[in-house]
Amino acid sequence: MLKARISAPARARPGEIISIKTLISHPMETGNRRNSLGARIPRNILTEFVCLYNGRQAFRAELHPAIAANPFLAFHLRADASGTLEFRWTDQDGEVTTETRDLVVEP
Amino acid sequence: MITRRDWLTGAAAITGYSLLPMPLSATPADMQKAMRQAFGDSPISTGRVALTLPALAENGNSVRLSVAVDSPMTEKDHVEFIQLFAEANPLPDIARFELVALSGRAEIETRIRLAAEQRVVAVAGMNDGSLWSGSASIVVTIAACLEGLI
Q: In chain B, which residues have their Cβ closer than 8 Å to the Cβ of A36?
């Protein structure tokens, strides 16, 4: 499991557009660099990020090596029901890191 | 005339940094090709997409990028995806973001790598099938993708 940090409000009013920020520790090694011995450092990147809101896909990102190390993503969401936000990062080998946050929606 | 590329290659030779082991940089033509691969021959209109990059980045390894698309984000009228392309990175693809009406606001922020002074293009696809684009140019002082750990 990689270390992820998420900034999302715990409460929102119905219909409110909330801002979500995510950061995950990952080198996003491009595969273009060489080490001090001249050997190519193999590519090692996260390829996908998904945010599910009560099971529905609310945001998805396909990532390429041009995304900086420790991928940062900020996006928005319209709060329409209380429930769970699930954040899922997948690397090129299919390894998944998951985080969840609860969201309470009330007037 | 000495072009910037010539100068950089020369400077790289003098300083011992080699740009050569890196795959040859994409060119604006490669970017056009990647965009054609993604969208076929569908027409792309200019507008509705605001791509924001700093005018100058001291370090190309992490450049803040934000993209906002003018859309009400309702079930009837919303952005389905935003795709980012770089003109002079080793690979033209940067990222693809998928949105839904529930996203509420078509505004995304991330941090990207840039290998050289170049133009970055964002293409947004709407749920009615139309494509819109916006771009920004940036000067990069220290490029990403240089060899070794600096």
A: 148
User: Which stretches of B18-120 are DSSP H helices?
Assistant: 28-39
Domain hosting residue A59, numbered range: 4-105
Q: Which residues make beta-bridge pairs with B119?
A: B137
Tokens 């969208």, residue located:
B39
Position B29 scores a pLDDT of: 87
The CATH number assigned to the domain holding A19 equals 2.60.40.10
Q: What separation, in Å, do the N-terminal and C-terminal C-alpha atoms of chain B show?
A: 31
> What confidence tens digit (pLDDT) does each residue in A2-22 have?
899 999 999 999 999 999 999
Tell me how far the alpha carbon of residue B102 is from its chain's centroid.
26
Closest CA to A22 of A100, A105, A106, A96: A100
The residue with greater pLDDT, A46 or B5, is A46
Domains and CATH numbers, chain B: 25-142 (2.60.40.2470)
Q: State pTM to two decimals.
A: 0.86
Q: How many folded domains does chain A comprise?
A: 1
Residues of A with CB under 8 A from a CB of B: 17-18, 21, 30, 32-36, 40, 53, 56-69, 71-78, 80
Q: Where are the beta strands (DSSP E) in chain B?
A: 44-46, 49-52, 56-59, 63-69, 79-86, 93-99, 107-112, 118-126, 131-142
What digits encode the pLDDT tens for the residues B83-132?
A: 999 999 999 999 999 999 999 999 999 999 999 899 999 999 999 999 99
- Output the six-digit token pair for A95: 């390894």
